[in-house]
Design a protein that fits this description.
heterodimer; A: mainly alpha; two-stranded antiparallel ribbon; B: two-stranded antiparallel ribbon; 14 helices
């Protein structure tokens, strides 16, 4: 047998990390789809999700299932707020020229970055820069035996949550009017506007949905790892960004597949390399993909702009 | 259209030379003013206050002026959004540090060597990535920047990893050593001014026009006979060379470097300088660097809140001045009037282009 148990366990760990990246990457992809702009503050939404979860747990000690809807609500709210502060002011002009203008796009990118700095520093202020522990009753680290394999309960929770959220997202995008609007706007914003879609509202909805996924990823990782800090959003944010690009920028299945690929390859890499080098795998995969598949692995040709 | 009958509409009033145009005098006055600030006022303030803190900030500012001016060359003028600039800054710093601590080479060798090594890496990175357009290129530079950071952090045998490199000798030339902060500042300022001058000559010229053309539309520029691929690679290599020089200055002035000096956030800080100053505007890049370094220091009194204030200021300046503090058009007109030899004239005396 080629696969020994340990190897299989690493793959499962990798898949659960990959699911977290996937949840974040979907948020990136949705937002990039409708606005054509990278949302650098996505990592902060993830951190906010984790901290709100922690605050609720320490203050109210609710059952775990009650934490999730609350985090979802806070995620949606922070997404809407983020859009209002960092993105809406830069959509003053809706004509085609300014939508494609590089200066406008770079300004939006940097405004999201500036907002993320402010948000992170405010969190540093409130919670301090150190790691915060999650109360042990809520930790998802109990080992569960599946045949010969021992899996942390957190992995199973992450799998289940991701599956539910992906299903819900699929339903939203392909079975509802709102989803049709999101797909129309990401296909062609001006065209969507011409056929009577309220693009502003669609963009706000997209931010809400994307940020709900991001915030959930945050609290899941918090419960799984057992420690959270205001800086925790950076690394998964970059990984999710990489997954989005490898997937072809606008393809959700592509982003999910690449996020899982990244998670698994990182987790397998730790078997051969010291953990410091594992990030090199991610970035090498990114650069190799970009050089040999300039449109991403799952992307289709986009307009040059 | 007949070339000899220039179209007046091509020449907006704001760009036309003033009636009493005396190119040489103006150029002299502006150059003198800037040199007086860099080599007169700032050193005078350092000596006058005797503050090592002020000298330290002045040195940091000069290093970041080089970084932001060089990033402006590739991102502003040539339009290639690079978000991994700090990595080349890091390569330069490590090259200078290793060459001087391991091999004992003098500053006069390590400074150009750091630039050339960074430029070599820039060239190797540019070869495969130049085919990528817009956001894909940006992401590739992000990935490569992070790769370089991971290597600096983990290749313990060469870089000593997170412990960093200590005891890098100060700037020196033929037996003279910059031991005092003032002499250190002056040495850095001379190099920074030289770097900005070279970038100025590159940007404000017909060569710079070609870079701006490929930024606006590379396919169109290609069809007009501009060698797009080559110019893109050249601009990236030039930018990474100056980033490497800035890294060498950091290594020799601070005597200690660690991988954390060259992280993603540093790249973003440099990009923020360029954008706040004005994409594509070299004077803007210099002003942006001044602003983004001096602002956090000026806000030290509010202590813990200063990073919040920096983020908020960055946000407000992007929101209220989307073209930057010195927009490209304004900056080009200003440089043409005050620093370049004026206009070349075509028949009929209409000034166009650079001379």
């Amino acid at each position: 047998m080629v696969f020994d148990v340990f190897f299989l366990q690493q793959v499962i760990n990798g898949l659960s990390i990959g699911c977290v990246y996937a949840l974040m990457a979907i948020g990136f992809t949705l937002i990039f789809g409708v606005l054509n702009v990278v949302n650098f503050a996505h990592g902060e939404v993830y951190t906010i999700g984790a901290f709100v979860g922690l605050m609720v747990i320490t203050a109210l000690a609710p059952p775990l299932l009650a934490v999730v809807p609350l985090v979802l609500a806070v995620g949606a709210a922070s997404g809407v707020g983020l859009e209002r502060i960092a993105f809406r002011p830069f959509r003053r002009f809706t004509d085609e020229a300014s939508q494609k203008s590089r200066a406008m796009r770079e300004a939006t990118l940097l405004s999201s970055l500036a907002v993320s700095i402010v948000a992170r520093e405010i969190m540093m202020h409130i919670f301090g820069g150190d790691m915060q522990g999650i109360p042990s009753g809520y930790l998802l680290q109990q080992p569960v035996a599946i045949g010969p394999i021992m899996v942390a309960s957190g992995s199973l929770v992450i799998f289940a949550t991701s599956a539910v959220m992906l299903g819900a997202l699929q339903f939203l995008l392909y079975r509802t009017q709102t989803g049709l609007g999101i797909r129309a706007v990401s296909n062609n914003q001006l065209g969507a506007r011409y056929v009577g879609i309220n693009t502003d509202r669609t963009i706000v909805t997209t931010f809400a949905v994307g940020s709900m996924l991001g915030a959930t990823a945050g609290i899941l990782v918090g419960l799984y790892d057992g420690a959270i800090s205001p800086h925790m959003g950076f690394a998964p944010g970059v990984k999710a960004f990489v997954a989005m690009v490898m997937g072809g920028l606008s393809s959700i299945p592509g982003a999910v597949a690449c996020a899982l690929l990244l998670g698994v390859s990182e987790s397998i890499a730790t078997e051969f390399l010291s953990s410091g080098w594992k990030d090199l795998i991610t970035y090498s995969l990114l650069v190799i993909t970009l050089v040999f598949f300039p449109q991403g692995l799952f992307g289709h040709g986009r307009e040059r702009a | 259209m007949d070339v000899n009958v220039p179209d007046a509409r091509l020449m907006p009033d704001t760009l036309a030379p003033p009636a009493a145009f005396s190119g040489r005098g103006r150029r002299f006055a502006w150059t003198l003013l800037l040199l007086a600030v860099a080599f007169g006022a700032v050193p005078a303030a350092i000596v006058g206050t005797g503050s090592s803190y002020l000298a330290q900030i002045a040195i940091t500012t000069m290093i970041f002026v080089i970084l932001s001016a060089s990033l402006n060359h590739v991102t502003g003028t040539a339009g290639l959004l690079s978000i991994g600039h700090a990595a080349f800054y890091g390569i330069g710093a490590y090259a200078a540090a290793l060459l001087s601590t391991r091999l004992g080479l003098p500053f006069i060798v390590t400074l150009p060597a750091a630039g050339l090594i960074a430029a070599l890496f820039g060239f190797l990175v540019a070869l495969p990535t130049m085919r990528l357009v817009s956001i894909y290129f940006a992401v590739a530079t992000l990935g490569i920047g992070e790769m370089i950071y991971v290597i600096l952090l983990n290749w313990i045998d060469l870089t000593r990893g997170p412990m960093g490199i200590r005891g890098i000798p100060p700037i020196g030339l033929l037996g003279w050593q910059a031991d005092t902060l003032l002499s250190r500042y002056l040495a850095v300022a001379v190099i920074a001014v030289a770097c900005v001058w070279v970038l100025h000559r590159l940007t404000h010229s017909y060569y710079g026009n070609a870079l701006r053309a490929l930024r606006e539309d590379d396919q169109c520029a290609d069809s007009m006979g501009i060698n797009v691929e080559r110019l893109k690679i050249e601009s990236f290599v030039v930018a990474t060379f100056f980033a490497g020089v800035a890294g060498a200055l950091l290594a020799h002035t601070s005597a200690y470097i660690a991988p954390d000096n060259f992280r993603f956030m540093e790249s973003i800080l440099i990009l923020a300088m360029v954008v706040v100053g004005g994409l594509g505007s070299l004077p803007g890049a210099v002003v942006g660097a001044l602003f983004m370094i001096v602002l956090p220091e000026a806000l030290r009194d509010i202590g813990d809140y200063r990073m919040i204030a920096v983020g908020a200021t960055m946000f407000l300046s992007i929101l209220l001045l989307p073209k930057g503090m010195l927009a490209e058009g304004t900056a080009l007109g200003f440089v043409r009037r005050s620093f370049s030899r004026g206009w070349a004239t075509i028949a009929g005396g209409t000034p166009v282009g650079w001379k």
